[in-house]
Amino acid sequence: MSAIERQTLRGADVDLAADVTGPVDGQPILFLHGSGQTRQSWGKALVEAARHGFRALSMDLRGHGDSGWSPDGRYDLTVFADDLRAVLAQLDRPPVVVGASLGGIVGMIVAAADPAAIRALVLVDITATVDMEGANEVIAFMNAGSDGFASIEEAAAAVSAYLPHRDKPQSSRGLAKNLRQRGARWYWHWDPAFMTMGVDAKQEAEGPTVLETAARGLTIPTLLIRGGRSRIVTEEGARAFLEMVPHADYVHIDGAHHMVAGDANDAFNDAVFRFADRQVEGSSQADG
């Protein structure tokens, strides 16, 4: 198995933490997590990508994980997109971008504006339209931890209550990667300023026009993966997206909720790499 290296990439105005693995000369594939998550969300997918011969990178978005916080407290879609553009300029060729939720939104915006910068796009349970009832449930969970937790176990209990469909892990040690200890309390591993304008407000202010315009502007190979039990992307929302992007592939994963990779990792990896491998094969044939 390829070793996983910790690297620092430069965003628009902050440093971004990344895990990198796989052959140096492999086709790059870049994983972008969702709101409130970290690059650790992609652990198994990163290993699988390297096994498929990709140069795999998973990156903490600004304000998340080990990446820098916005010096001016801004976390609108423009700054996330500027970070992605800066990272793409540091790669030796356009990557396949796999983006979950917020990461997918950012990938979609950049891919529509500069299709030559991204080889192909995988959208993980995100489209141009979001079910706001489900989105507000995510926001409520994120805000509920704003005062921190007395212990990692207390944070684990909050996660289990939010994700009752998942088996409770035997150990809560893995959760520590998503937490920061300050004083006697544990806090989620993101900048509190990220939540000062809620995701629902961001969606209302920026989302529909920006995202629908981006979706309709997609010309690169695109795959939409939807969790069959998602409360963020409805089946109607998926169909509407496929009408906007008629060349897109679509995979529906039964039983998975919004965090598809965590709920059904094997099915998720199978869908991603069937698609991504095809892009590499097509590129090689074109080059030949």
Low-confidence stretches: 198-205
CATH-derived topology = Rossmann fold
Corresponding CATH architecture: 3-Layer(aba) Sandwich
Major sheet description: 8 strands, mixed
The separation of the N and C termini measures 30 Å
Structural class, judged by helices and strands? alpha/beta
CATH homologous superfamily caption: Alpha/Beta hydrolase fold, catalytic domain
Instruction: Provide the succession of SSEs.
Output: EEEHEHEHEHHEEHEHEHH
Number of strands: 10
Helical fraction? 25-40%
CATH C-level category:
Alpha Beta
Oligomer category: single chain
Radius of gyration: 18 Å
- Strand arrangement within the widest β-sheet reads 1-2-4-3-5-6-9-10
Number of helices: 9
Total domains, how many? 1
What does this structure look like?
By secondary structure, the protein is an alpha/beta fold. The protein has a single domain, classed as Rossmann fold. Helices cover 39% and strands 18% of the residues. It has nine helices and ten strands. The strands form two sheets. The chain has an eight-stranded mixed beta sheet with strand order 1-2-4-3-5-6-9-10, with helices on both faces. Strand 9, helix 7 and strand 10 (249-253) form a beta-alpha-beta unit. Helix 2 (77-88) packs across helix 3 and helix 3 packs parallel to helix 6 (199-216). Residues 198-205 have low confidence and may be disordered.
Summarize this entry quickly:
The protein has about 290 residues and is an alpha/beta fold. The chain contains nine helices and ten strands. The protein has a single domain (about 5-130, about 200-285), classed as Rossmann fold (3-Layer(aba) Sandwich).
